[in-house]
Amino acid sequence: MIVIKYGGNALPSDTSTDPVLEAIADAFLDGEQIVLVHGGGPQIDAALSEKGLGKEKIAGYRITSEQVFSVVQSVLSGQVLRAIVNYLIGSDVNAVGLSASDGGLIRAKKFKPVVDGKAVDVGLVGEVADVNPMILETLITEGYLPVISPVAVDENGIGYNVNADLVAAAIGGALRADSVIFLTDVAGIYRNWPDQSSLISEITIDELKEIAPSFSEGMIPKVAAAIKAIDSGAFAVRITDGTDLSCVLDALDDRGGTLVSA
């Protein structure tokens, strides 16, 4: 069982040909059980820019008003999700598209980042409050490949944009995945970002926790997601370059990038 996070930065601008999705499709058709979680940051930025929205930020966090969230949801659970599902179906994969809360999969809660020692309200930005993988277990057993957008609702039905890395981590943990693969736009975890010679090929979760505070900004979200995935039940995490097909093929064959093991 593999949970794959396909980052928005790794998604091609034109999905008429997508060798990464083809590789995922081939692995699935060869018998691998796969759940795919996607991001969509660049696509959201482009859509908001067209509408002149999303310019207000606090400490790097975009203020997600109802108007901004409407665009975010449309892009993630509409444009990007449908493009991926349609592509996989065209590659003979029995794919099913879900938003993160469908079927009770994830319940969100409001995320308030701490800035200068104070919790700040950044609008409709959420974090994972609870996970129930039953719908995924049912779909997987019936031979489907679930594709999940990182839009979730709270217990009152209020929608939130949730970090896709943390959605993938939570799902990977709940399913006790053999591996959670993060396909991003870098080769893995760098001890001294962006020094490419400092790429870590393999590390245990305990070792990663020890050095986690030393990472610079670009590596922090990836390290946090890796730790979350294993702490919540996944057996291993692999972070690799989703823009390089050879790296993706290696990851699907349990090689390359950065391996974080329990």
Automatic annotation (TrEMBL):
<feature type="binding site">
    <location>
        <begin position="40"/>
        <end position="41"/>
    </location>
    <ligand>
        <name>substrate</name>
    </ligand>
</feature>
<keyword id="KW-0067">ATP-binding</keyword>
<dbReference type="Pfam" id="PF00696">
    <property type="entry name" value="AA_kinase"/>
</dbReference>
<feature type="site" description="Transition state stabilizer">
    <location>
        <position position="5"/>
    </location>
</feature>
<dbReference type="InterPro" id="IPR037528">
    <property type="entry name" value="ArgB"/>
</dbReference>
<dbReference type="GO" id="GO:0005737">
    <property type="term" value="C:cytoplasm"/>
</dbReference>
<comment type="function">
    <text>Catalyzes the ATP-dependent phosphorylation of N-acetyl-L-glutamate.</text>
</comment>
<feature type="binding site">
    <location>
        <position position="161"/>
    </location>
    <ligand>
        <name>substrate</name>
    </ligand>
</feature>
<protein>
    <recommendedName>
        <fullName>Acetylglutamate kinase</fullName>
        <ecNumber>2.7.2.8</ecNumber>
    </recommendedName>
</protein>
<keyword id="KW-0808">Transferase</keyword>
<feature type="site" description="Transition state stabilizer">
    <location>
        <position position="222"/>
    </location>
</feature>
<comment type="similarity">
    <text>Belongs to the acetylglutamate kinase family. ArgB subfamily.</text>
</comment>
<dbReference type="GO" id="GO:0042450">
    <property type="term" value="P:L-arginine biosynthetic process via ornithine"/>
</dbReference>
<keyword id="KW-0547">Nucleotide-binding</keyword>
<dbReference type="InterPro" id="IPR036393">
    <property type="entry name" value="AceGlu_kinase-like_sf"/>
</dbReference>
<dbReference type="InterPro" id="IPR004662">
    <property type="entry name" value="AcgluKinase_fam"/>
</dbReference>
<feature type="binding site">
    <location>
        <position position="62"/>
    </location>
    <ligand>
        <name>substrate</name>
    </ligand>
</feature>
<dbReference type="InterPro" id="IPR001048">
    <property type="entry name" value="Asp/Glu/Uridylate_kinase"/>
</dbReference>
<keyword id="KW-0963">Cytoplasm</keyword>
<keyword id="KW-0055">Arginine biosynthesis</keyword>
<comment type="pathway">
    <text>Amino-acid biosynthesis; L-arginine biosynthesis; N(2)-acetyl-L-ornithine from L-glutamate: step 2/4.</text>
</comment>
<dbReference type="GO" id="GO:0003991">
    <property type="term" value="F:acetylglutamate kinase activity"/>
</dbReference>
<keyword id="KW-0418">Kinase</keyword>
<feature type="domain" description="Aspartate/glutamate/uridylate kinase">
    <location>
        <begin position="1"/>
        <end position="241"/>
    </location>
</feature>
<keyword id="KW-0028">Amino-acid biosynthesis</keyword>
<dbReference type="InterPro" id="IPR001057">
    <property type="entry name" value="Glu/AcGlu_kinase"/>
</dbReference>
<dbReference type="GO" id="GO:0005524">
    <property type="term" value="F:ATP binding"/>
</dbReference>
